[in-house]
Specification:
The chain is an all-beta fold. Helices cover 0% and strands 57% of the residues.
Length: 125
């Protein structure tokens, strides 16, 4: 029996006389598998990135919610190909992101200046 993942997203930008926004309305997607992984993890500045922990027990990666819990430093999230780290997402201090992950890929994170605490929750697809 399939369940649902419900998403609500809105973004408002205001800078001087410029305003803009994005609010597509709620979205519901099917969730066939039941499971959640991840947690909070200290991410160092180690070259090449550190694998995001807690995802190994999931059979079908679905949506991920990421939050940089550091008050000062940013963190990147990416992949490693032939030993080289490629960042694809940047979270400044206290920023969040929600995205769908590609199954079968190992995700890595790397702090910029000092270690940060990254909260990662992943729900199965």
């Amino acid at each position: 029996m399939a369940g649902t993942i419900n998403l609500t997203c809105s973004l408002r930008v205001s800078n001087g006389g410029f305003t803009d926004g994005f609010a597509p309305g709620p979205v519901s997607v099917a969730e066939t598998n039941i499971g959640v992984g991840g947690g909070s993890q200290s991410i160092p500045t180690t070259a090449g990135g550190t694998a995001i922990a807690g995802l190994g027990g999931l059979t079908a990666l679905g949506y991920a919610a990421l939050e940089n819990l550091d008050a000062t430093h940013f963190v990147t999230v990416g992949i490693v190909v032939s030993g080289t780290y490629y960042p694809v997402l940047k979270l400044k201090a206290r920023e969040v992101a929600v995205l769908r992950l590609v199954p079968g890929v190992t995700y890595y994170a790397m702090a910029d200046t000092a270690a940060v605490l990254l909260l990662c929750r992943v729900w199965e697809d």
